[in-house]
Design a protein that fits this description.
The chain is α+β, with helices and mostly antiparallel strands. It is built from 11 helices and 8 strands. It has helices at residues 41-45, 47-50, 67-77, 81-89, 146-155, 158-171, 173-193, 197-228, 240-303, 306-312, 318-340, and strands at residues 3-4, 24-31, 34-39, 58-63, 95-99, 102-112, 116-125, 130-134.
Length: 344
């Protein structure tokens, strides 16, 4: 029975393996102290000969494989059918599962390009190998540790390769979080400048993305909690300090994401306050206009509109024009007073 050790939370997005697609298989192994890499069909053919207990490091990397290719690789590596099924289906949450002496880990590489882009990464750790399956969006050979130190990392075993890849993924969360924070700052400035529908739409988009990112990142803490405590038995004692360092980084990251979520919630409150203030200002000015118009209407109602016709034909006394002048002057004074107190 698999031991699922991550909260059941949906991740941002997943990998979709297309039937009939042709992925790129790369196998890296140390032979005689030298790094030897194979690619394509030749790599799969020599996998069996590379798997032996004394091998210091074996890393199998598959980019965009088809379901058939994953199943074929699963037979070579003796992967549990549930692991093969999870890799093929994708759309997993961040999790860690121990099955038949293997550890299956799912993580997400995150990138911010005006919106959150997530790339699912499957890592399977065995006694003598590490398997990584991912899309073209993520290149493990360009990560910080493996860019120039692949032989040295492989020499320490597959669990050290797992640390190198995981550490690079988590380290990239921080510049991602910084760009997300910059987007929140820009949105706050926009909202303070004036409440408009585009800002509200962007506000709710960021709020949704933060919730999704939090759900994708939060379970990763449990992954490295188990790896750091050697609950799974496939991590060397000397490696636990490295995984504990990643765990500490994730605690800081989740705290930062919680802060961003509070900032977005506060920005929404500012937006709603601005809308209410704008409505109050409109009502205040309409009230000022009503005061002026109501005064003129009251005077006109007392004298009646028939007096206006008589006055325009020259049959009315000068009193009418006096009342009109007083009414206009009073209205102008009232308008000036309302203007000074910013009611109109």
């Amino acid at each position: 029975m698999p031991d699922a050790a991550a909260a059941a939370v949906p991740a941002l997005g997943g990998r979709h393996l297309a039937v009939g697609s042709h992925g790129v298989l790369r196998v890296a192994a140390l032979e005689g102290g030298e790094l030897r890499e194979s690619t394509g069909d030749g790599a799969l053919a020599r996998l069996r000969s590379l798997r032996h207990p004394t091998a210091p490091g074996l890393w199998i990397d598959y980019t965009g494989p088809s379901p058939e290719q994953v199943a074929q690789l699963g037979e070579v590596l003796d992967l549990h059918p549930l692991i093969v099924e999870d890799i093929v289906e994708g759309n997993q949450r961040s999790k860690i599962e121990a099955t038949d002496g293997l550890v299956h880990i799912v993580m997400f590489a995150l990138e911010y390009r005006d919106t959150v882009v997530a790339s699912e990464i499957d890592l399977v750790l065995g006694r003598d190998f590490l398997l990584t399956v991912h899309d073209e969006d993520w290149n493990p050979r360009q990560t910080s540790h493996l860019r120039a130190e692949t032989p040295a990392i492989l020499a320490h075993g597959p669990d050290h390769v797992l640390w190198a890849l995981s550490d690079s993924i988590v380290d990239n969360y921080f510049p991602f979080a910084d760009r997300l924070g910059d987007a929140i700052d820009a949105l706050q400035d926009d909202v303070i400048g004036g409440a408009h529908p585009a800002a509200l739409q962007r506000l709710f988009q960021l709020k949704r993305e933060l919730i999704e990112v939090r759900r994708a990142v939060a379970p990763v803490r449990e992954i490295f909690n188990q790896l750091a405590n050697r609950e799974l038995g496939l991590v060397d004692a000397d490696e636990t300090i490295y995984f504990r360092d990643i765990y500490d980084h994730l605690i800081r990251l989740t705290d930062e994401l919680d802060t961003y979520r509070e900032l977005v919630s506060g920005t929404l409150e500012v937006y709603l306050s601005q809308v209410n203030n704008s409505l109050s200002l409109i009502m205040k000015r309409l009230t000022g206009v009503t005061v002026i118009v109501a005064g003129i209407g009251a005077v006109a109602g007392i004298f009646g509109m028939s007096e206006a016709g008589a006055a325009l034909s020259g049959r009315e006394a000068d009193g009418f024009w006096t009342v009109v002048a007083i009414t206009v002057l009073a209205s102008a004074v009232i308008a000036l007073i309302l203007r000074r107190i910013d009611w109109i």
